[in-house]
Amino acid sequence: MKVFAAELIKLKRSLSWGVAVLLPIIMVASGSIITLIDGRALEDGWHTLWMRSIVFYGLFPLSVGIAILASLVWRTEHRGSNWNALMAGPTSSLRIVLAKAGVVAVLAAIMQIIATASTVVLGKLVFGLPGFLPPQYLAVSVTIVIASIPVAVLQSWLSMQMRSFAAPVAVAFLGAGFSTFLLVVGIDPAIFVSPYATVSRAAQLGTGNFADTGEITAAVLAIITAASLVLSAVLTAANTLVLERTDAHT
Q: Is the pTM of this model over 0.70?
């Protein structure tokens, strides 16, 4: 817990907070702006607004955003002799992996909360939609948060291995794009192999897009959650093993 708290303290003056706050707002607002420019109505109210905001956001901007956050979280360790100090310290590899990935996952969760809140604000203040965001979409948001965890672990791993800030982000962009393609052609089992596919699939829940049936059922939520937890566990174990065998940088 102390290691995790220390990682949070490191973010005090980090650009991570700006990314976590601004990225979801910009992505969600862009869908609404396009809607206003085109003069298109929200034919199905909250559902249509959700489709034009969160669904697009979950295709690749979310994964790319998590990648940026991971690169920012690891950037300090790749400066000067910080990496050698990290490796020489008393903290175990598993605790380092969990702390780093945990911080990225928390930031990803904050992004999703802000994205959902932005959707509600736009729906009420800009489009004047009646009522409130249907509760099933709140369940989808929770599922997206869970599905973001394996992406956070994977991107933390990549950012640990690569000193380059941009390289892990490029991997996320390509990985999210390819994973979306797999879902488009109906290869739904990709969610058990690719974390990017898992989070994209979660964002499509209830929309009828790609492999989604349009129904949000307990079984589908359970499958996506299970895939997320299994991938997170496997990636965490692999990340820990790699870190234990990593030498100090010269």
A: yes
- The alpha carbon of 205 is separated from its chain's Cα centroid by a whole number of angstroms, namely 15
Helical residues (DSSP H) of 122-187, grouped into ranges? 135-161, 166-184
Burial 61-89 (b: 16+ CB within 10 A, else e): bbbbbbbbbbbbbbbebbeeeebeebbee
For residue 13, what are its two tokens? 């003056």
Rg, the chain, Cα only = 19
Tell me the pLDDT tens digit for each residue of 59-116.
889 999 999 999 999 888 877 777 777 777 777 888 889 999 999 999 999 999 999 9
List the end-to-end C-alpha distance of the chain, in Å, as a whole number.
30
Helices 135-161 and 166-184, axial angle in degrees (round to 10): 130
Q: Scanning the structure block, which residue is given the tokens 């976590």?
A: 20
- The interaxial angle of helices 61-75 and 135-161, nearest 10 deg, is 40
Q: Are 65 and 25 in contact (CB under 8 A)?
A: no
